[in-house]
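Entry for the shared binder. Reason: the reviewer on the internal report wants the predicted structure included alongside the sequence.
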Amino acid sequence: MNELAVLIGIILFPGFISAITAEKITSHVKPWGALKYGIYSFVLGVMSYAVIQAVILIWQVIFENPVQYYYLSVWSFIFDPSLKFELADVFWATMIAIPLGILAAAIVYHKRLNRIAKFFNASFKYGDENLFSYFLSAEDTDWIYVRDKEKGLTYQGRVVSYSENESFQELVMMDVTVFGYDDSEEYYSVPKLYLSKKLGGFSIESIPNELLE
């Protein structure tokens, strides 16, 4: 039984690598739980093997025209664990895992599934990330005002990077000019600025291009 568990773990290894890749480069407030990791690992793992299988079959159809096509041993092992599988299958699937994880993250970032659902009026959900990340990641968000009413300051600058967890919002800006919140008097300028506040500690406004000219 322990040996079987190890073999199953080895087979699922490409999916785990792919899931880690996708998790690390996507925006989310809460870390992925074990259930989500498990689902992503399984789905991306199957896709990794499927990509390898598709490449092999396409190659055989175009260049070899074989009497019998080659199928990965992992498919047989899934239905009959007593059969052996080739570690080469796991190796090549792992090589595909990282690019596949990046592709999955890109689909999430560009909200391809959400756009398809919106096209068919199936859903109007904007994505999985919070509105803070959604607003700052928009293509038309470049120059912004960050208004900190508590400190009486307004920051004008360009978005460099941002993050959010369950307690704090963080923002890095460049080419920053600091103004008074009430009178808009210019105080000073800095090349780069880091802000960190509790959730809702500041408001953000996108600056139209015509106001910058």
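Summary line for the report: The CA atoms of residues 146 and 204 lie 5 Å apart.
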